[in-house]
Design goal:
two-stranded antiparallel sheet; 80 residues; binds iron/sulfur cluster; Alpha-Beta Plaits; 11% helix
Length: 80
């Protein structure tokens, strides 16, 4: 059965944890940041689908309209 989960469009995301509005908006703390020098911006915002319940608060809060809810197969809604 498909579930709604937020997906980040990295081309729109500034990947700046200090100013990210989506991270503090998540009621379950599912949004984090990982440094990764392979990324053009030096890191990326990540969402832990094991904690996420698909409430959509991050979509509303994101300052860059970089997050959208998508229907994913349940098998894909695992930690990333
Ligand atoms: S608010 Fe949105 S665009 Fe800004 S860093 Fe967070 S997820 Fe990326
Ligand atoms: S959909 Fe809700 S629970 Fe999931 S990451 Fe966004 S704010 Fe957090």
């Amino acid at each position: 059965m498909p579930v709604l989960r937020p997906v980040i469009n990295k081309r729109r995301c500034s990947a700046m944890p200090d100013i990210c509005l989506a991270m503090p908006a998540c009621p379950v703390g599912a949004i984090g940041y990982v440094e990764d020098q392979e990324e053009p911006l030096g890191g990326r915002i990540v969402i832990d689908y094991a904690c996420c319940d698909g409430c959509g608060a991050c979509v509303t809060a994101c300052c860059g309209e970089a997050i959208e809810l998508r229907e994913l197969p349940a098998a894909e809604s695992t930690p990333i």
